[in-house]
Write a structure and sequence with these properties.
This protein is of the alpha/beta class. The protein has helices at 20-26, 45-58, 71-79, 93-103, 126-133, 145-149, 151-155, 167-174, 181-196, 208-215, 227-239; strands at 10-15, 33-37, 62-65, 84-87, 137-142, 160-165, 200-205, 221-226. It has an 8-stranded parallel beta barrel, surrounded by 7 helices. The longest helix has 16 residues, at 181-196.
Length: 248
């Protein structure tokens, strides 16, 4: 159970290791969700299917950070039963509307089949399957100076569940370090846009101190660290860092 300081925030972590058992293990903790990182880690469609299956077995929602804005990618991730998508590099409201259209049946362009996991393998009627399918959450990543300028318009797009600040790419787009004051201010702008729209205000943080810092700025949907980093930190806590350099 979360303590009172995190009662209003949803907490997840990135999963970068291709193992459905990792998702199952994380499902035994107090996390609210996990994000399988198909943008920066080696996941194909078959492995993503197993990762979502692991989440279903453990009762923890699985979001997928997709590698690109592509109708086929969005369709396959939602058909296998992802609870939602984290969509990189959404720079304009028009892009956000396109993503939502790719992910939605009613008012959108998502192709329908009743056979996939999300529809209970044809055990649901079409009306129920459509209703469930349109509940998938679309979270748009704000990762450029242009996206910050458009943040309020993006947040206001119907069907966008939230904004997620990608500080590293945002800093790169601004030609700055991710700790620069200008990047912090741009982060605030995006978070405030999301909260004004009543949407999820998300970001990646390294741990509890950063989480508490940005909760004070209005963030309420945190991807904390990653499975790889958490594993390394847990081992280093009792074994320490490697004594000699190792091949990478």
């Amino acid at each position: 159970m979360k303590d009172s300081s995190t009662a209003e925030a949803q907490l997840g972590t990135f999963v970068k290791t291709g193992s459905p058992q990792t998702v199952e293990v994380l499902g035994t903790t107090g996390l609210d969700f996990v994000v399988v990182d198909a943008e920066h880690a080696p996941f194909d469609r078959a492995l993503l299917d197993l990762m979502v299956m692991g989440g279903r077995a453990a009762g923890i929602p699985v979001f997928i950070r997709i590698p690109e804005i592509n109708p086929a990618v969005i369709l396959s991730c939602l058909d296998i039963g992802a609870a939602g998508l984290l969509v990189p590099h959404v720079d304009t409201a028009e892009q956000a509307r396109e993503v939502v259209a790719m992910a939605r049946y009613r008012g959108g362009r998502r192709g329908y089949s009743g056979g996939p996991r999300f529809a209970g393998y044809a055990s649901l009627g079409m009306a129920q399957a459509l209703q469930l399918g349109d509940q998938a959450q679309i979270v748009c990543q704000i990762e450029s100076a242009q996206a910050v300028e458009e943040a309020q318009a993006i947040a206001d797009v119907p069907g966008v569940a939230g904004l997620f600040v990608g500080r590293a790419d945002l800093a790169l787009s601004m030609g700055l370090d991710d700790r620069a004051p200008e990047v912090l201010q741009a982060t605030r702008v995006a978070l405030q846009a999301a909260t004004r729209a009543g949407k999820l205000a998300g970001m990646h943080v390294g741990g509890t101190p950063e989480r508490e810092q940005f909760m004070a700025e209005g963030a309420n949907w945190f991807v904390v660290s990653s499975d790889q980093t958490l594993l390394r930190q847990a081992v280093q806590a009792f074994a320490g860092p490697p004594r000699t350099s190792r091949a990478r």
